[in-house]
Design a protein that fits this description.
Helices cover 60% and strands 8% of the residues. By secondary structure, the chain is α+β, with helices and mostly antiparallel strands. Strands 2-3-1-5-4 form a 5-stranded antiparallel beta sheet, sandwiched between helices. A 4-stranded antiparallel beta sheet has the order 8-9-7-10, sandwiched between helices. Strands 6-11 form a two-stranded parallel sheet. The chain is elongated.
């Protein structure tokens, strides 16, 4: 790639980043540019290539079928954390301590202690205990524990533990739940508990994803027709997106054989599969049509397109993949799943855009412009010189008032991000589900009507032989802790035992989280491990905080390197990282203001838990940062191309925005439509992901790329392109460029950027 533009260029010794070439070669007549090796490879037999692609896609449909049924709905825990170890040990040794199935028994107007109610409840308890795959069954009518009866005396609980992994537990629930749900004589039963929450969440996500695709596909097609005019051209990006989605489903299906994968990753597969494939296809088809309009034949147009836009697409895919790959450093499989899905869909979208799309363009040729629906609404043909005139005027205005636009947009974005300073992190629970979901109803009844928040306590696993006196002494020490409301236990089995500690206040509030640390610091004559909702949250926050610098460092370093390879500048990569991060402030501020604080919850149809699930900001940052880089690469590549051609910094910025402003905005709007369709989900985390990234994409395209980037580049002037001599030599040897072959020239063009009095229009 570094050899593309070297011939005919000459190194300048002023260190100012002056261009090596200033004259673009013209087309070689009707034949267009001479096809290179890659072009010959992907277009030698275009119809055969398309047939092979069709067969591979059909295989992907078969291989990826049923993938949703094999995906998990958990993955928020650190598998190496103390809480995870204690949870697994308690499930193994004391299954009754970890109930994941709750039957809410409602006696209507009677008391839960009514003889008829009690008899029916005991019958249900005994029946549940006899079910295969169910253990640790207990109920209020067996133990008489006040925590298992509602304060109004009309509801009470039967608790049990379903054994096995997520898939096995879900299968067991599906088998037994219909026999318990509903009316049983004097009582009515609702099914809840963690296993029911996970099962219901998985079902709702699959249903919502189907609905989102039903919404997104036709709307996207309409928008593409509006962008391209030609119905034929509009179908190409959509086809590339479908190929990427189906291929990624097959990849995820294969990964489920060797590791856990979250069902939430399906949403990212759809969003990125459509969004990025459309971005890449938009860029390639637009450049191909430009080359056809300039007189090239289809083969020559494809050659030029791959040599220019094709390299930008490849480079963009790498930057997005790196941002998503950073999630692999985290131990939670929820985050790692998005890395698996994201990397696969990005690479497949790029591969389809660089292999299948060129073959289709060669076959179509000038027919890519067929079925131009815009002719129904216009007279004549628009002049090519009018392309992007509005964006050109905007660039001129922004650069003329660069300080004002730079300060105003920066301050505005920072203000929009201020709500994030009050973020509170929590865990995902039943409140992710719609208010009418059965498992949500059960948990809400427990929160509102039962004393002591059953299931919200902390469990302390004690391992090692101990005497009753030692257990009692330890119980007295933890009872004396200021955040403890009550301590139950110990329940002893062999050399192991466990205590249940009920914290004061909410199950995962700041006090409960402090109590986790105090329990872990309390001395004992045996080994102790603490688990429970608050302990899982503490460990999850610790795991993320410990690895977050590594993830951010990977993204920053690789982004700096890749943008340098594209531009040869030291300053532009730094600008790219800082401005991309700044473009995400509105998203993070909105997430807290809406989803944590509950504003617009009625309009958007969700229940705010008063916190943000710990992994969501990490996920949203990696995805949104990668998409911001995607648009940034498109803009910078055209600015760099024009700067190398003319040597005029301001003209290059104006030209880049003129040629890509409409394209980036169209791509952002289409991707936002897809993300908003995902955001119609009834699961709060998915709604937050979809709507948050839609906002980030629009803010990046319409504010950062349109206003802030040209303003900042105008302020930095020719220094934008500076690099020390060693790095310039490194870039000439290894740099990535989106440029056409150039003719040798004797001298470089004059630098018109030295005049700071005005801006060229």
């Amino acid at each position: 790639m570094a050899e593309v533009n070297r011939r005919g260029g000459r190194e300048t010794g002023d260190g100012g980043g002056a261009p090596e070439q200033v004259k673009r070669a013209g087309h070689t007549g009707e034949g267009g540019a001479v096809p290179g090796g890659w072009t010959r490879f992907v277009t030698a037999r275009p119809r055969l290539s398309l047939l092979v692609a069709l067969l591979l896609t059909a295989l992907a449909v078969v291989a990826g079928s049923g993938v949703a049924d094999r995906l998990g709905s958990g993955g928020w825990q650190d598998p190496a954390a103390q809480s995870t170890y204690a949870t697994d040990a308690l499930e193994r040794e004391f299954p009754a301590s970890q109930p994941n199935l709750l039957l809410l028994v409602d006696s209507g107007h009677r008391s839960a202690d009514d003889p008829a109610v009690a008899a029916e409840a005991r019958r249900l308890t005994a029946r549940l205990a006899s079910e295969r795959g169910v253990t640790g069954v207990g109920s209020y009518w067996q133990s008489g524990a006040p925590a298992l009866r509602a304060e109004d005396g009309r509801e009470a609980l039967i608790a049990a533990h379903i054994t096995g992994d997520e898939k096995a537990a879900s299968d067991t629930l599906d088998r037994i739940a219909p026999h318990y749900r509903g009316a049983h004589g004097p009582v009515t039963v609702k099914v809840g508990g963690p296993v029911a929450v996970r099962s219901e969440m998985q079902t709702i996500i699959q249903e919502d994803l189907t609905r989102a695709e039903t919404i997104a596909l036709p709307v996207t097609l309409v928008l593409l027709v509006m962008v391209f005019g030609s119905a034929v051209a509009a179908m190409l990006p959509l086809g590339i997106g479908i190929v990427a989605i189906l291929g990624t489903n097959a990849v995820l299906r294969g990964l489920t054989e060797v590791t856990d994968v979250s069902v939430f990753a399906l949403n990212l597969t759809t969003a990125l599969g459509l969004g990025l494939a459309i971005d890449y296809a938009l860029f390639i088809v637009r450049r191909f049509r430009e080359e056809l309009s300039a007189g090239a034949d289809p083969s020559g147009a494809v050659a030029t397109t791959l040599r220019t836009a094709g390299r930008t697409v490849l480079f963009s895919a790498l930057t997005v993949a790196v941002s998503l790959a950073a999630m692999l450093v985290f131990p939670q499989y929820f985050l790692r799943s998005f890395a698996y899905a994201g990397i696969a869909v990005v690479l497949l979208a790029a591969a389809a855009a660089l292999i299948l799309l060129p073959a289709a363009l060669v076959v179509l040729g000038h027919r890519v412009n067929a079925l131009d629906l815009r002719r129904l609404f216009r007279r004549g043909t628009p002049r090519p010189t009018a392309q992007g005139r509005g964006w050109s005027r905007m660039a001129t205005l922004v650069m003329r008032r660069a300080p004002l636009f730079a300060v105003a947009t920066t301050v505005g974005l920072v203000v929009l991000g201020l709500p994030f300073t009050g973020v509170k992190f929590g865990t995902a629970d039943d409140r992710q589900l719609p208010s009418g979901a059965e498992s949500h109803v059960v948990q809400q009844h427990i929160r509102d009507g039962f004393p002591g928040s059953p299931g919200g306590g902390l469990e302390v696993l004690a391992e090692g032989r101990a005497t009753p006196a030692q257990y009692d002494a330890y119980k007295d020490r933890i009872t004396a802790l200021p955040g403890v409301l009550r301590v139950d236990g110990p329940l002893v089995k062999g050399e192991n035992a466990y205590f249940t500690v009920q914290p004061r206040g909410e199950a995962v509030d700041a006090g409960a989280q402090r109590l986790v640390g105090e329990l872990r610091a309390t001395s004992a004559p045996f080994g102790t491990s603490v688990t429970g909702t608050a302990a899982i949250l503490v460990d999850s926050k610790h795991a993320i905080a410990e690895r977050l610098p590594w993830a951010a460092g990977i993204i920053a370093v690789v982004t700096l390197l890749l943008v340098f390879l594209l531009t040869g500048s030291v300053l532009i990569p730094v600008q790219a990282v800082l401005l991309n991060a700044l473009s995400l402030t509105a998203m993070f501020g909105a997430v807290v203001w809406v989803f944590q604080d509950g504003h617009l919850s009625g309009l958007l149809g969700f229940t705010s838990p008063g916190s943000i699930e710990t992994t969501l900001p990490v996920l949203m940052f990696c995805v949104a940062f990668g998409l911001s880089m995607d648009y940034g690469v498109f803009l910078l590549s055209r600015i760099k191309e024009e700067y190398d051609r003319t040597g005029d910094h301001r003209e290059a910025v104006r030209f880049g925005l003129q040629r890509t402003g409409g394209l980036i905005t169209a791509a952002a709007v289409i991707l936002a439509v897809v993300m908003v369709a995902i955001g119609t989900s009834r699961v709060t985390n998915t709604k937050m992901l979809g709507l948050g990234i839609a906002l980030a994409v629009l803010m990046d395209a319409m504010v950062v790329r349109s206003l802030l980037v040209p303003a900042v580049m105008r302020l930095t002037g020719r220094a934008t392109w500076w690099a020390p001599a060693p790095l310039r030599r490194f870039h000439r040897r290894f740099g990535l460029r989106e440029e056409e072959p150039v003719a040798p020239v004797a001298e470089k063009a004059p630098d018109r950027d030295r005049d700071t009095a005005g801006v060229h229009g």
